[in-house]
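ugh ok fine here u go
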Amino acid sequence: MTTKNRLFAVMATSFVLLGMPIAAMGVAWPSAAEDLGRTIGELGLVTFSYGAGYTVSTLVSGELTRRFTTGPLLVVAAFAAAGSLVVLTLTSIWAPFLGAMFLLGVAGGLLDSGVNAYVAVHRGARSMGIIHTGFGLGSAIGPLFVTVLLAAGLSWRIAFASLATADLLLAVAFVTTVGALDRTNRRSGDRPTVDGKGVILGLSVTVFFLYAGVAAGTGAWAFSLLTEGRGISTGIAGLAVAGYWGAMTVSRLALGILGDRIDPRRALTVSGTATVASLLVLWIASPPWLGLVALIFSGFAHGSVFPLEMLLTARRFGATYTPWAVGYEIAGANIGVAVVSGGIGLLVSRWDIAVVAPVLFLVSVMLLAAIEALRFRSAAQPIASI
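structure:
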């Protein structure tokens, strides 16, 4: 295996670890809350702290890349993730716990932005699909790991101690492989400009905002919609939601296998259209089973949107500006998760759970419109040199 391929293997592994902690926290929180003397509802503060750190680091990732280059940032991010997980494992005090979640979010944002930018510039669609498949696997493995520990009568802290060890090993792996980063990642003295592509950047951030809102909003609210709104049993609803996340991961795995054979722009149009159609069926479906199928298919339909748009970022902005663009896009995605999922919660409180499906459909229509607007606007611009 070449040095660059070893570097990519480490990057793919980092995305598995990136997906695990916050997903695992959802299962660990009832036990963690008891240890910390907090309420179940304060999980919202935990996820907010993580999301705030993630957003801050992605917004400044471009400038940090310019000043320090990608390699050192990945090393620091991995060590920071390991350190924050150690604090989560050891502390029983609320303030350090929230601080550790913030730092974990900062580390995650740096890893997310740095790896995405590198792969967008130096690899292809298959590599982009592989790293995002890794994130999906981590998001599934994290909760399962905690569930097994708790079922065995063990502490939730073991899971986070294990993740801390894994991130420490990841940091060491980055130390031994970041020398393979392309020379285009070297420090630059001048801050790059968007060169008249501000509208394209705005549309791109909008796509990520709407995509993350649809994906996370569907995953967060589907279980309640199916059980409370449609009278489906918790077992069947749980399997359907798991199927939704699984289908998203399968879609990204398919991109990892076939990505270099497809036209990403055409694939985005197909994905956006299929997402709209599936969420429309979820909304209006009469037989309950049809709604379940639509929910699962929607995950497969939009699963490739994030990695494909990330791949096209390098073509739209070039190697120099891509770290900035990727940081803004991921920050937009984080805000989209909070705004759409939180907004649905407010609407459910104002009306009832039935509002979930039409809102998700409406946001998916907006997503398709943004994808097409970005595609047409980008077509009028020359492809950037990467």
